Amino acid sequence: MIRVMLVDDQELLRAGFRMVLGAQPDIEVVAEAGDGVRALEVLREVEVDVVLMDVRMPRMDGVEATRRIDGPKVLILTTFDLDEYAFAAVKAGASGFLLKDVPPADLLTAIRAVHAGDAVVAPSTLKRMLTKFAAQLPTEELAAASELTPREREVLLMVARGLSNLEIATELEVAEATVKTHLGRVLAKLGLRDRAQVVVYAYEAGLVVPSRQPKG
User: Fold this and answer.
1) What is the pTM of this model?
2) Are the C-beta atoms of residues 73 and 50 closer than 8 Å to each other?
């Protein structure tokens, strides 16, 4: 059973998510909160696997709350005009983000993926979001990237393009387990938590630039 917490200042929205999630045999909504402060208080008392987190809330927003959460995976909800907040939340440790009008089936898939240890990143949305930061990206790669082997770098770039482990394995003609091993080493060497942070790192390091091909 996947224990989910809903954090959103709109009670009606929480009710809608609760209804969708409650109909699933493997998902249970175990807690709710209307802002980041309350969410952190509840998390000290309730065991939660995945937090479905709004971005803009009173008292403490979703970005700061995500930064303070240790343990549960965080899935951020955002809208098109709040991409900057989603970007900051992923950097703060969120395992991914979704748009608030996400179809129910996609929401369920995302929650299960995050619970399984994967990250949910919509490549097209992330690319559009990071285009706003293109002018601020460094022209040189971060020093840590030099520690990667050629194959690890290749895997990093493919993750940044939004490919799944299976798709990477197919393209590289290796076993999926091998891809997972390479990705694990990338995470360890760069000090990153999951795939979402790999994507952000690739853009910030200048390895991938919006509207251009990855640097080979």
Assistant:
1) 0.67
2) yes
